[in-house]
Amino acid sequence: MTRMTSPLPRALAPALLCCLLSLASARAQQARPNEVEGLVVPGGPSPAVTATYPANGASAPAGVLVLKITFDQPMTADAWAYGKSDTGAFPSCLAHPRLLNDKHSFALLCTVATGQTYAISINPAPRFASDAGRAAKPYVLRFTTVDPETRDMHAALTQAGLTDIDEPVMDWNDQGKGVSQSAPPPP
Description:
Blueprint: H1 7-30, E1 49-53, E2 59-71, E3 81-84, E4 92-93, E5 98-99, E6 105-112, E7 117-122, E8 139-150, H2 153-159, E9 179-181
Parallel strand pairs: 2-8
Antiparallel strand pairs: 1-2, 2-6, 3-7, 3-9, 4-6, 5-6, 7-8
């Protein structure tokens, strides 16, 4: 006895296989866990300087100067470093910059002489860090000074786009290394 097979089931086999694979893929995607909001993924981009006062390459009045450094991410108040650069004089600054209320900007009180070119290395020892613990990219701020001289804190704050509430309060912590920085992060 001869058995006859219908060509219809053979023609449907590839289509049936595709349907089964699509169904299995859809179920696998549904089984994935939901996205978690507020999760900080380790890694990611390093914080970068987005703005400074004085602006890089610009001129600023001599005398009392409030340096302002703004990063693209929220930063940690007790993680910072700045120091000398070979491309200009180093201003007389207090040791500790203050993290401002926006959590992106630091203010540092300095004095500068007229007619000078200054350069400050931001993060020469990798200490500036985001609140997620990522070290900031190194940056060199260069600027020149001109007359007239600024003689008071209020005027210096205004020039930097700040208010009296942003007054930098710091003390000196340079141990003769030419770099002032926060304590190393705990192990």
